[in-house]
Specification:
This protein is of the alpha/beta class. The chain is built from seven helices and 14 strands.
Length: about 230
């Protein structure tokens, strides 16, 4: 009987154009969420751990069993410049899945960031590599390299579905995923979001204490006074 393969890999998947990725990279994650139907952000526990925080790139999805990083290492081979390696570990917290050596080699391949719902280690080294790392936390416990795992197939992190080829962005507020097929709609909606934000910021600068129409909205929802 043949030994089952440790890794299942989808090497070729649709990718957004560099121009689309660049267009989204200009906006903060909060604006992207608003333009994306108020959804797409990963759980707050997937947070920036390195000094470098801002990134925008194409998701190269990885799923690995807990305490194993064979698949994340193998993913480097399939990465293209501008990719973000996104590693789902089912939120495993007992050991790291990425360290500075893996990250440094990924950067050499052109990877622009790494996102995981697991743990990482070697924070000084990660900062030295110089690309953003978003993770659940730090653990010096090391992983094995046995598999099984997948590369380029759908994953889920904190309830957000991520497909290889989606655009993924991060900044100090967190990480947001935009499905590849939704990018055009999000870019169209961003014009309205930008205009709304500019209007609200102008109101703040003018001394406003509530947005226009907010008093009426609150009243329409109903208020019960207890004093």
């Amino acid at each position: 009987m043949a030994t089952p393969a440790a890794l299942t890999v989808r090497r070729n998947f649709p990718r957004p154009s560099d121009a689309l990725v660049k267009s989204l990279s200009e906006f903060p994650t909060g604006w992207i969420v608003d333009a994306n139907g108020r959804r797409g952000a990963l759980d707050y526990r997937v947070k920036p751990l390195t000094r470098a925080m801002r990134f925008c790139g194409v998701a190269l999805t990885v799923h690995t069993r807990p305490r194993d990083n064979l698949a994340p290492y193998a993913a480097i081979t399939y990465a293209k410049p501008g990719d973000v390696i996104v590693v789902a570990t089912d939120a495993y917290e007992e050991a790291s899945v990425v360290g500075d050596i893996l990250l440094g080699m990924a950067k050499n391949r052109g990877v622009v960031a790494l996102v995981t719902d697991g743990m990482v280690r070697d924070i000084d080294g990660l900062n030295g590599v110089g690309i953003p790392v978003f993770a659940r936390g730090l653990s010096p416990n090391s992983p094995f390299k046995d598999g099984p795992g997948t590369i380029g197939l759908p994953i889920s992190i904190s309830g957000v579905a991520i497909n290889a080829g989606d655009i993924i962005l991060g900044d100090q507020d967190g990480v947001v995923v935009v499905a590849r097929e939704a990018v055009d709609d999000v870019l169209s909606a961003l014009a309205d979001v930008k205009a709304k934000e500019a209007k609200m910021e102008a109101l703040v600068a003018q001394g406003a204490t509530l947005p226009a129409g907010m008093e009426e909205l609150i009243a329409s929802k109903g208020v019960r006074y207890v004093d």
